[in-house]
Amino acid sequence: MRVNFTVNGRPQEADDVWEGESLLYVLRERLGLPGSKNACEQGECGSCTVRLDGVPVCSCLVAAGQVEGREVVTVEGLADYAKQRSCGHQAPEGHDSHTGEGTELSPVQQAFIDAGAVQCGFCTPGLLVAADEMLERNPNPSDADIREALSGNLCRCTGYEKIMDAVRLAAARQGEAV
Amino acid sequence: MDFLRPASWEEALAAKAEHPTAVPIAGGTDVMVEINFDHRRPEYLLDLNRVGDLTEWEVGEDTVRLGASVPYTRIMEDLRGELPGLALASHTVASPQIRNRGGVGGNLGTASPAGDAHPALLAAGAEVEVESVRGSRLIPIDAFYTGVKRNALAADELIRAVHIKKADGPQQFSKVGTRNAMVIAVCAFGLALHPETRTVRTGIGSAAPTPVRAKTAEEFLNAALEEGGFWDNGKIITPSVAKQFADLCAAACNPIDDVRGTASYRRHAVGIMARRTLTWTWESYRGTAATTEGAA
Ligand SMILES: Cc1cc2nc3c(=O)[nH]c(=O)nc-3n(C[C@H](O)[C@H](O)[C@H](O)COP(=O)(O)OP(=O)(O)OC[C@H]3O[C@@H](n4cnc5c(N)ncnc54)[C@H](O)[C@@H]3O)c2cc1C
Ligand code: FES
Ligand code: FES
């Protein structure tokens, strides 16, 4: 079957999609967007987290056919998504908002690097999407808020402390910016 | 495999009538796991995401009519006052990502004894509104669970909504697991005080082939509370009454040993949760007889 939907602001058409296929598979294997990771395919790890019409979901548990006509944001589009949110206008010309190439990092991405919250990096895309969405809803999160928002994302490397640091840092910088 | 995409409830019912083997998919948080792991290869998937009615709810005089696909996140955030027990149970489901997709209709469709909505629905009192092209009917929640992962739906029926009694007193939900997120219940317990009818209702999860009420325990407690005038005098429930209630709740279990826990642990834990949830709700009833808020 064919599925038409918007990914990172750009209309996409995926062909020959098997009816039982997940959104995650379509993104990675058909649209060349391997940022969302496949670790468990059963909703346990959160490394496949994307936003579906703005809402964070596990893309491994969304059937491809369910996204027909809807909007998906993946980690590749996170920087432009964050930029549009802060400027309230379209992303500047010349950037490929589809793959994220040539785009500046979003504040959350930069904070993960600065805080040393990335080790093997496999969990990172899902955490970034989840953390960014929480900061959008809740600009001044408590530690409990952060833990709750990230409770669906597993990391086998960092022990989570640096991830907590990164999200606190992103929140603090976001606060300074306004 | 075929992917059916009805745009309305009527179309969904027509599709289910035409293809009774079609597997409905709402949040997909149960269905997609089975497909990803090749445990299930349905001939037809029937997508319910386009049926907007299913994600809406109506707060009526006595009940909330909760659309089958209202995600847990909405229940937690928007229905805490009307459905405190279900809101607490919803908050213990999986993770934010899963709660953004999954809902009570899917929990009822799967009818796992470990589903977290069930104890809360049993305790609050609920009816499941199901419909087919043949018509619509209300199934009392007690009659909905018919076996391990089996429910009372006919092959051509879909769940439209759940009618849940609005809380008229404190409600609690308690769940035993190894961590605070992303955990399937070892066992779970829901309890609701109904001051208007002077009754207490319970729901037990993961400790019998289906979710069940502890009816003997409820009858015992209802009689003891009536006899002692507790609803009027608001006294602390006698420890011996609470203990007997807890023992009867444990006795209502028919658990198995599995990877998550042993049968005897489950029975023991249900007794503890029964006593605690009774104490918490009764304290809150005594504190503010009119309160309908559940404590976190
Ligand atoms: C990682 C993970 C953790 C989980 N943790 C928990 C947990 O802690 N507690 C818990 O209770 N559950 C848990 N679950 C299970 C699942 O999230 C719930 O059962 C959820 O309520 C299912 O809802 P859904 O909309 O996603 O259902 P779906 O997967 O879309 O459907 C589930 C079943 O219901 C049927 N169905 C759906 N809607 C209808 C309808 N309107 N009419 C008729 N049939 C219908 C489907 O055909 C299917 O058989 C977890 C799942 C995952 C992946
Ligand atoms: S791959 Fe989707 S949650 Fe793990
Ligand atoms: S950095 Fe390796 S899993 Fe998180």
Automatic annotation (TrEMBL), chain A:
InterPro entries in the cross-refs: 2Fe-2S-bd, 2Fe-2S-bd_dom_sf, 2Fe-2S_ferredoxin-like_sf, 2Fe-2S_ferredoxin-type, 2Fe2S_fd_BS, Beta-grasp_dom_sf, Diverse_Oxidoreductases
Keywords, sorted A to Z: 2Fe-2S, Iron, Iron-sulfur, Metal-binding, Oxidoreductase
PROSITE patterns named in the record: 2FE2S_FER_1 (PS00197), 2FE2S_FER_2 (PS51085)
GO molecular function, one term: oxidoreductase activity
2Fe-2S ferredoxin-type domain location: 1-78
Matching CDD domains: fer2
Name the UniProt record assigns to this protein: Oxidoreductase
Species per Swiss-Prot/TrEMBL record: Streptomyces canus
Automatic annotation (TrEMBL), chain B:
Record GO terms (molecular function): FAD binding; oxidoreductase activity
UniProt entry keywords in alphabetical sequence: FAD, Flavoprotein, Oxidoreductase
FAD-binding PCMH-type domain sequence ranges: 1-169
PROSITE patterns the UniProt entry points to: FAD_PCMH (PS51387)
Oxidoreductase in keyword set: yes
Superkingdom to which the source organism belongs: Bacteria
One Pfam entry name: CO_deh_flav_C
InterPro entries recorded: CO_DH_flav_C, CO_DH_flav_C_dom_sf, Diverse_Substr_Oxidored, FAD-bd_PCMH, FAD-bd_PCMH-like_sf, FAD-bd_PCMH_sub1, FAD-bd_PCMH_sub2, Mopterin_DH_FAD-bd
Name of this chain's protein: Carbon monoxide dehydrogenase
